[in-house]
Amino acid sequence: MQFLSQLPLTDQEKQFIVSLGAETPVALYGLVRLAIDAFVECFGSDRTYHLIRYLYPLLSEEDRNMFNTINDTDNALDDYTMIQKQVEKLKGHK
Fold it and tell me: N or C end of the chain: smaller count of CB under 10 Å?
């Protein structure tokens, strides 16, 4: 998980990510997108957004295209809108 050293994360955040077992940037990126509610709850919406932004440049062009195709979006960073919607949804449940 050497890629974690490239990310401006706290030691606690890195330990959490290590505990998830995502060994590559693409694995972590996919995990964040798959379990966005959990990441927002754990990291907060802004920090989750920044994690996505930190990981995105580490993805290959092929991986970016795959995620864009999965989401049927032109820009994977549009995830911020999805995160904000999830935060609003979570606030409504509290």
Answer: C
d(CA 48, CA 35): 11
pTM greater than 0.90: no
DSSP conformation letters of 40-69:
HHHH-HHHHHHHHHHHGGGS-HHHHHHHHH
Q: Assign 73 to helix, strand or coil.
A: coil
Read off the pLDDT of residues 25-77 as tens digits, 9 standing for 90 and up: 999 999 998 888 888 888 888 899 889 989 999 999 998 888 877 765 444 45
Place of tokens 């940037």: 25
Q: Tell me, what amino acid is at 32? A: V
